Write a sequence for this structure.
């Protein structure tokens, strides 16, 4: 116990580790907030120049960037309607309407405190329930991953936009785009049209920047002459009554974040969307309707995505399976430093586990401190004249895309997606499902095929497995409910019930 | 309960049919990959995605046809109204500037191409005078250079045209 405590406090008592965690968190917030810079990109670049360091300083820096970056994405989502990371897509739905009302300060304050709470819940889960949650995640069969991904896609498709059909179209388009390239199971080319360049697939980060950054910037050109709303950032710290009101929702969303984060392959993005959806369905009297600046709409996703950070570490440290893209990069860092993440890691190097828990706790505290300070500077970003801001967003989008693999072809992809996304927006489509479809598409494809192969390529046996396994049945029912709840039939039943 | 439908935008019907064609194309390409020889073949999921796109596009088109047509002012045609609403001059100019910037990125290099893009677009959009455009583009380019080139050691194109 005393050993565990001393490992836990290692980053707190060593000035170098303390400084690196602080620097990483601070940088992470700004990296997450700047459109075009992703936490995954920053973590992978950091590995390239920390591989000669000792393992603890390297991990301290990366953990700080991870924790700060997941939170930082919400700032650009609130202030610019451009999620800095996929984990902040749901935050933009109500965060940006809040900024448009001049309440960016309250929104940022609330997201900061909720991210902090969510972060703590995630870390506590990592410390206390790591083995149990990992065992639960092991119960997931490929068909369950398929259902989970379908659920994520349906959620984002139905969250906003004019109709479910548009959400479904956008999601399926994203899945099709995610299929481009060499099939990982048979090495056949899919949608490559005989070109070698397409075998590697379409870079989803270029698509993400194009759909979110460029299309948003182009859409903003319609409002060049619109008066800029002055953001009220005089009161950043949310009132105690406001916090007390949203504490149960924050804790509930954090629990969702931990579980989703702990599932391999699903990270803060799905966690935030699922938490947003459960808030939308369970909160009876939101502060405003969801999508129009409801506080609940920022509390739920921000609590969940930071809770998913701790959750994502669980399968990484105990099973050696990355919880999301960033933990996949961190696994690479552990290998570089001669460590083998997996069940033996906690037995052979228990200090690393407790060091990570202590380090994440410290990063979470720094996130709260840095998050509640320096908001005035961020709010100024919104007050920047659009004639200056739009070219800057466009240039950041170009540099950010180019930086991924030093390829100008990626930049062309980005512009193409940006223009396409612009027309989608004009005609009432949401671009979020397209990007999420691209990310989830390959996972859905391989999960479906593995499940089908395990059922002996028999569609009837495949369908039966969804009913015979309790876990699959629950997930399948959840997916079915999600679809039915979006149909006019369901709305009719609800209206009839409400009318008595 | 019938939801209130907004008015149909100019070009929306054509866009709906273009989406339908794209869905059919994806479905056909999915089939073409391996002829869907088994339920777990490589083409099944792409074909399924195409099927969902096609069915959704049909629902979208049905909805578009139920909308009242867009209000077109007298003396303006649908094509002109489409251009006015979807690609006003600012969008067209910025898209053209972006394309020119990307084409110039490798031959001219990051600094030259980015400065020209920033200066011209800020001068055009902000309409705040030459000096503002010059100062803002120089300052922001310097900040971007420090973050990406110095801090993150990202290799940016150095250009070959003026070597």
């Amino acid at each position: 116990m005393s050993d565990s405590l001393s490992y836990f406090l290692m980053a707190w008592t060593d000035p170098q580790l303390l400084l690196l965690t602080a620097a990483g968190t601070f940088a992470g917030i700004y990296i997450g907030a700047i459109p075009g810079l992703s936490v995954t990109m920053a973590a992978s670049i950091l590995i390239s120049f920390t591989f000669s360091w000792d393992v603890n300083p390297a991990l301290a820096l990366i953990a700080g960037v991870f924790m700060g970056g997941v939170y930082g994405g919400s700032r650009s989502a609130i202030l610019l309607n451009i999620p800095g990371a996929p984990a902040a897509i749901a935050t933009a739905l109500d965060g940006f309407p809040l900024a448009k009302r001049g309440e960016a300060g309250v929104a940022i304050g609330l997201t900061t405190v909720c991210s902090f709470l969510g972060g703590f819940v995630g870390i506590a889960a990592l410390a206390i329930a790591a083995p149990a949650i990992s065992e639960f995640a092991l119960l997931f069969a490929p068909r369950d991953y398929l259902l989970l991904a379908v659920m994520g896609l349906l959620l984002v498709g139905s969250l906003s936009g004019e109709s479910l059909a548009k959400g479904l179209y956008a999601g399926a388009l994203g899945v099709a785009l995610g299929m481009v390239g060499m099939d990982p199971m048979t090495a056949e080319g899919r949608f490559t049209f005989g070109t070698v360049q397409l075998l590697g697939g379409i870079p989803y980060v270029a698509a993400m920047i194009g759909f979110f950054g460029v299309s948003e910037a182009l859409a903003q050109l319609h409002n060049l002459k619109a008066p800029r709303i002055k953001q009220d950032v005089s009161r950043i710290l949310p009132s105690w009554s406001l916090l007390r009101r949203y504490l149960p929702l924050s804790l509930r969303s954090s629990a969702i974040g931990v579980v989703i984060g702990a599932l391999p392959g699903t990270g803060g993005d799905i966690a935030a969307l699922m938490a947003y959806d459960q808030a939308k369905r369970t909160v009876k009297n939101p502060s405003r309707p969801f999508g129009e600046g409801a506080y609940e709409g920022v509390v739920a996703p921000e609590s969940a995505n930071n809770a998913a950070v701790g959750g994502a570490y669980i399968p990484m440290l105990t099973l050696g399976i990355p919880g999301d893209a960033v933990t996949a990069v961190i696994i690479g860092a552990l290998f570089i430093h001669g460590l083998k993440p997996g069940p033996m890691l906690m037995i052979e190097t228990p200090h690393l586990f407790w060091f990570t828990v202590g380090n994440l706790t410290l990063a979470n505290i720094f996130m709260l401190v840095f998050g509640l300070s320096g908001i005035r500077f961020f709010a100024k970003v919104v007050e920047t004249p659009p004639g200056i801001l739009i070219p800057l967003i466009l240039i950041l989008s170009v540099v950010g895309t180019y930086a991924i693999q030093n390829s100008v072809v990626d930049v062309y992809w980005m512009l193409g997606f940006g223009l396409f996304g612009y027309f989608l927006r004009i005609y009432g489509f949401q671009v979020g499902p397209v990007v999420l479809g691209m990310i989830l598409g390959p996972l859905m494809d391989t999960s479906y095929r593995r499940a089908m192969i395990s059922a002996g390529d028999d569609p009837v046996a495949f369908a039966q497995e969804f009913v015979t396994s309790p876990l699959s049945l629950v997930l399948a029912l959840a997916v079915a409910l999600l679809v039915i709840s979006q149909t006019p039939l369901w709305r009719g039943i609800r209206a009839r019930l409400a009318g008595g | 309960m019938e939801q209130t439908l907004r008015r149909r935008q100019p070009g929306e019907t054509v866009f709906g049919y273009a989406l339908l064609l794209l869905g059919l194309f994806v479905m056909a390409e999915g089939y073409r990959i391996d002829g869907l020889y088994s339920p777990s073949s490589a083409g099944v999921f792409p074909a399924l995605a195409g099927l969902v796109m096609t069915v959704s596009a049909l629902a979208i088109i049905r909805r578009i046809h139920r909308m009242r047509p867009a209000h077109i002012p007298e003396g303006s045609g649908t094509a002109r109204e489409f251009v006015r609403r979807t690609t006003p001059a600012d969008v067209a100019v910025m898209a053209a500037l972006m394309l020119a910037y990307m084409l110039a990125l490798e031959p001219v290099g990051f600094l030259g191409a980015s400065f020209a893009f920033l200066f011209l677009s800020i001068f055009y959009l902000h309409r705040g005078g030459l000096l503002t455009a010059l100062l803002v583009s120089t300052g922001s380019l310097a900040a971007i250079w420090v973050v990406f080139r110095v801090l993150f050691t990202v290799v940016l194109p150095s250009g070959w045209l003026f070597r």
In short: Helices of chain B lie at 12-34, 44-66, 78-86, 89-108, 110-126, 130-151. Chain B has a mean pLDDT of 87. The radius of gyration of chain B is 24 Å. The longest helix of chain B spans residues 12-34.
